[in-house]
Amino acid sequence: MQRLQWIQRLQAIAQTGLTYARDPYDLERYRELRALAVEMLAAEAGVPEEPLRLVFAAEDGYPTPKVDVRAVVFREGKVLLTKERADGRWSLPGGWADVGSSPGEMAARETIEETGYLVRPVKLLAVLDKAKHAHPPQPSYVYKLFIRCELEGGAPRETLETEGCDYFTRDALPPLSLDRVTEPQLLRMFAHLDDPERPTDFD
Predict the structure, then answer these.
(1) Within a 10 A sphere around the Cβ of 25, how many other Cβ atoms?
(2) Three-state DSSP class for residue 103
(3) Are 17 and 146 in contact (CB under 8 A)?
(4) Contacts of 128 (CB under 8 A, 6+ apart)
(5) What is the pLDDT of residue 1?
(6) Residues 6+ apart with CB under 8 A from 29
(7) What is the pLDDT of residues 133-163, one digit of tens each?
(8) pTM over the 0.70 mark
(9) What values do phi and psi take at 48, rounded to 5?
(10) Of 60, 65, 51, residue with least CA distance to 17
């Protein structure tokens, strides 16, 4: 995880330099630095360089973390998970935050889009630094927001991104989509279910 953080920092320095530098020699050095970050991340993640190069090249302006919003919906002591078509594994409903939508609005919208359930956001349970958890390596630096939502209606359904949804107990979790959520993170969410007065977690 430390190597991934170094790589992300190199990419951020390169992106900042390419945004603000004017000297052509400096710009070339920052391009070389970005290429080095791509090479290092490809080796770390065991993936081809070209897709990463395209991802890094698309990023411009001052680098800031991306925000991943996840909805946490409980019913009868079980948590709502959705099965991702991308990898056939399970995750909390959610995704990247959209400009113009609050975190609560995102949690509610992602839930109905991915599961068919209508929910109401009620509490921010956790703000986590993705780099400090056991997720697979990725180019972007990410903050994860977990938002408790109350079930208000709707019915389960499949979507373009998901193969359905179901509720699971803490001791019978299915194979998880680790890029999106980990078991320790879900157990933190169950801790909030056990203690509604528990303050927001952060790291």
Answers:
(1) 7
(2) helix
(3) no
(4) 143, 144, 146, 185, 201, 202, 203
(5) 60
(6) 17
(7) 999 887 788 999 999 999 999 999 988 889 9
(8) yes
(9) -65, 155
(10) 60
